[in-house]
Amino acid sequence: MIKRHIFKIIVILAIIPCSCKKETNATIWISVNTGMTANNSVHALAISGNSIFAGTDSGLYLSSNSGTTWTVLSTGLPLLKKEITSLAISGSSIFAGTFSGVYFSANNGSAWIAMSTGLPNDEITSLTISESTIFAGTGGSGVYLSAINGSSWSAANNGLPIDEISALAVSSNTIFAGTWDDGLYLSSTNGNRWATADSGFPANIIINSLAISGNSIFTGTQSGVYLSSNNGTTWTAVNTGLNNNTTVNTLAVNRNSIFAGSYTPNNIATGVYLSSNNGNSWKAENAGLPSNTIVNCFAFDNTYAYAGTLNNGIYKRLLTDF
User: Is 44 a residue whose pLDDT tops 50?
Assistant: First the structure.
């Protein structure tokens, strides 16, 4: 892991009494976990207006002050199997994927109702929204779809292996579904039919994450990052600056920057990597993160980048730092 050191040279001309307010060092990642369970693993982050939602292994949390403090949300959510695995937002509708199906809130998370009719008894691994349809990836039963705010789900697995769906994303009218060990699939028919989109990938690729930046589609895999500029027809590895054997756990796009959460078997390249040139090169951005931090998810508001981690809660950093 690359550490960035900042050295300051101070010339003292006079000793002047001063009562100065100590400012937070915003050039590093700052822990923001007040109100959360200690050593929380954060699996999903989503932002709606001034509200930040964090899905964790101990439930769902809300912050309305840039992560300074967090409040647990529980009304209507499962009391056992509390893990929140995924989040998706469409207007005032918020969806949460859990080990017990999908839950829906129309009042900024104050109360939730189960929205799982037709879903298998399976973990919800990922959620994405395409216009008026919400898609749910499962832990072993493929993809299901429902109308936004609908009350029932139907399987959408024509051409898709009945496998764990590890990532979902929408680019224009195309839906991409990454699987655990059967590669990548796409549908241009709103999930009615799927086709393979594996040209350029090594065999037995594991798709951990997907991110869209304009006409560029990025996949995070156990072999680094791959890029497609032709809507998934072909893929090219874009790993300059990443260590060999880097697994990219999560990807997210903010303006012209792509953020990657990565780790290696020996943890020498664990943490956050950033590309500002469409994936052509990457650099580590880990100042302030604990050693060997594994990042599970990212989110962005107008001021901060937020990183949800494995066992270390949430960190934030000013966007102007990158």
Answer: yes
d(CA 303, CA 301): 6
Q: Say how far apart CA 143 and CA 163 lie, in whole Å.
A: 9
Give the pair of three-digit tokens for residue 31.
């822990």
Which residues on neighbouring strands pair with residue 280, listed in sequence order? none
Q: DSSP secondary-structure letter at 289?
A: S
> Residues 189-221: pLDDT tens digits?
999 999 999 999 998 899 999 999 999 999 999
pLDDT digits (tens, 9 = 90+) for 230-249: 999 999 999 999 987 899 99
Closest C-alpha among 234, 242, 262, 241 to residue 250: 262
- Degrees, nearest 5: CA angle 66-225-185: 100
**Complete domains list, the chain, with CATH:** 30-321 (2.130.10.10)
Q: How far apart are CA 90 and CA 131, in angstroms?
A: 9
Cα gap 320→322, rounded to integer Å: 6
Task: Specify the pTM.
Answer: 0.90
Which amino acid does the sequence have at 314? I
Structure-token match 């690729």, residue found: 205
